[in-house]
Design goal:
The protein starts with 8 loop residues before the first strand and ends in a 7-residue tail after the last helix. Helix content is 42%, strand content 14%. It contains 14 helices and twelve strands. Helix 1 links the parallel strand 1 and strand 2. By secondary structure, it is α/β, with parallel strands linked by helices.
């Protein structure tokens, strides 16, 4: 990986979210860069993910909505960032189906507002400061729609992967709103010359993941002896990326990527959802055996597996418009920037399960909303 000795002041939107907080921790703990964390603190934004950084001299927090142009202008003028890493987004597919309006507002209107304030700020810069500025937009592989599934195409086929030139075909209100934001970012680069980069990533997992998502939901439900819901047959395929690997990739792109380029970031870990769930059950059996768990009853979702975590699996009605397969070709970022994931799925999922076992109190506070009632507003 190429070295970059310069240190930057980096504005991270959505830095209290799952991926954003991993980026902020990596920037502060593993680099010399400074961070301005801009987050509205919605239900999924949690400053407890950044408690250790609260008083760090290279870290600042601003509780700001990216749709608020006045406040964004103030943040740019006060903090004078060199780089913007835009992660703030509504990201849960089920929530987007139930209430798409918030996704349009945050992901499209919010991105437009941020782009305009970034453009005005960039236009005011001069010399090396202007030449060094860049706007990095973090997106998802879901904008591409889905890919042929091996059950349909035949397991002997050479199945395609998402590349940076794959046509957009979003399936949900969430992915459509992210596709719209991607297009805005590219248009601002083409029309106004704003120095932008775009990354599209596969499914993330790891510590501090909001409990409504598949992997933390399965871990926590299993520990509580609750059913483990699996959509349809559980044969949907995702490429799983450990969040700390993703954070490293994002910082490499933000600081070393070529302006105007798109980089796909994946974990090289295609797994069916049912494989993921059963792997979690297997790791839990090793680290926290079900026979010692007083919450495990005699659920029999799968015959012959009573009184075990696997027995808690329950197949439920599939999500409307559920994409069947995502898979990333991450060759470009490896060739050009030297990044590749450090974690296999097996090593990453073990670290993840162990983190949740060690941090049940954090999970409970997120689930019952107590962290929201005690937000550290004094950090504003």
């Amino acid at each position: 990986m190429k070295k970059n000795s310069s240190s930057f002041n980096i504005l991270v939107t959505g830095g209290a979210g799952f991926i954003g907080s991993a980026v902020v921790r990596h920037l502060i703990n593993d680099t010399a860069h400074s961070v301005v964390n801009v987050d509205k603190l919605t239900y999924a934004g949690n400053l407890e993910s950044l408690t250790s950084l609260r008083d760090h001299p290279r870290y600042a927090f601003e509780q700001v909505d990216i749709c608020d142009a006045v406040e964004l202008k103030r943040v740019f003028n006060e903090h004078r960032p060199d780089v913007v890493m835009h992660l703030a987004a509504e990201s849960h597919v089920d929530r987007s189906i139930d209430g798409p309006g918030e996704f349009i507002q945050t992901n499209i209107v919010g991105t437009y507002t941020l782009l305009e304030q970034a453009r005005a700020y960039w236009s005011s810069l001069e010399g090396d400061k202007k030449a060094a500025f860049r706007f990095h937009h973090i997106s998802t592989d879901e904008v591409y729609g889905d890919l042929p599934h091996p059950d349909e195409a035949g397991r002997g086929d050479n199945l395609p992967l998402f590349t940076e030139s794959t046509a957009y075909a979003p399936s949900s209100p969430y992915s459509a709103s992210k596709a719209g934001s991607d297009h805005l970012v590219r248009a601002w680069q083409r029309t106004y010359g704003l120095p932008t980069l775009v990354t599209n990533c596969s499914n993330n997992y790891g510590p501090y993941h909001f409990p409504e998502k598949l992997i933390p939901l399965v871990i926590l439900n299993a520990l509580e002896g609750k059913p483990l819901p699996v959509y349809g047959k559980g044969n949907q395929i995702r490429d799983w990326l450990f969040v700390e690997d993703h954070a490293r990739a994002l910082v490499v792109v933000a600081t070393q990527g070529r302006i105007g380029e798109t980089y796909n970031i994946g974990g090289h870990n295609e797994k069916q959802n049912i494989e993921v769930v059963k792997t979690i059950c297997s790791v839990l059996e090793e680290l926290s055996p079900s026979e010692n768990n007083p919450n495990i009853d005699t659920y029999s979702c799968e015959p012959g597996n009573a009184d075990s975590y696997v027995a808690l699996i329950k197949y439920v009605q599939d999500r409307p418009g559920h994409d069947m397969r995502y898979a990333i070709d991450a060759g470009k970022i490896e060739r050009e920037l030297g990044w590749k994931p450090q974690e296999t799925f097996e090593s990453g999922i073990r670290k993840t399960v162990q983190w949740y076992l060690d941090n049940v109190a954090w999970c409970r506070r997120v689930q019952d909303g107590s962290y929201q009632r005690e937000r550290l507003g004094t950090q504003k």
